[in-house]
Amino acid sequence: DAKTTQPPSMDCAEGRAANLPCNHSTISGNEYVYWYRQIHSQGPQYIIHGLKNNETNEMASLIITEDRKSSTLILPHATLRDTAVYYCIVEQTGANNLFFGTGTRLTVIP
Amino acid sequence: DAEITQSPRHKITETGRQVTLACHQTWNHNNMFWYRQDLGHGLRLIHYSYGVQDTNKGEVSDGYSVSRSNTEDLPLTLESAASSQTSVYFCASSEDSSYNEQFFGPGTRLTVL
Predict the structure, then answer these.
(1) Are the beta carbons of A44 and B102 separated by less than 8 Å?
(2) Could you tell me the pLDDT band of residue B35, with boundaries at 50, 70 and 90?
């Protein structure tokens, strides 16, 4: 069963920040938030994950609200190559099972 | 460089035939997974393995089987292919750790006629 809710699609202008929201109101205390993306016809690619604190890596930033019921993935300077389907996943640590859902299709516009 | 490969990349078969899709990873990961992806469903977990001789059923395991005789390979077998199994199949692997970063293969597009 889906534990997350994401908008089906979003557009973003090239060079601008892309902010992808995700609701996970039933998240449990030991469940992580993961983000993956899938560029057309390729296998999914891990982006970032977090538990409570905001996280940043070379690809993106993850902002998790204090109550942990929602999060936002931020791509600081979107490029055309960031056009993909982005999946927000809630997963219990150590469970090793990812439920992908249908994600958000992000289109970066020139 | 370490990688995960799938073969064949494209396969056309007939209903009732046995089909095996190969997955090979060189990261020495203990955990391996098979997913299928259909329009409107995202990725759905078929089977997974946490190590040699270990296999587990996922969300959509009916009609599929896997075996894990070594760390590097997790072949997926369709015992008697059905048209409903026409899909894109992705293999993934991950290491034993406190978080779940899975590395995915390029996928196999299977058509069952």
Answers:
(1) yes
(2) very high
Rama region for A25: left / alpha / beta (φ>0; ψ in -120 to 50; rest): alpha
pLDDT at residue B99 greater than cutoff 90: no
Computed from CA positions of residues A57, A59, A65, A69, in that sequence, does the dihedral angle turn out positive or negative?
A: negative
Measured between alpha carbons, how far is residue A28 from residues A58, A95, B4, B44, B96 in Å?
Answer: 28, 13, 32, 22, 22
Beta-sheet pairing, B10-13 with B108-112: parallel
- Chain B residues within an 8 Å CB radius of A44: 43, 90, 92, 102, 104
Residue A2 in this model has a pLDDT that exceeds 60: no
Residue B48 has its nearest CB partner, among A43, A96, A99, at A96
Q: What is the mean pLDDT of residues A92-103?
A: 74
B99 with A93: Cβ contact below 8 A = yes
CA distance to partner chain B, nearest, from residue A9 (Å)? 13
What is the arithmetic mean of pLDDT over B3-28? 96
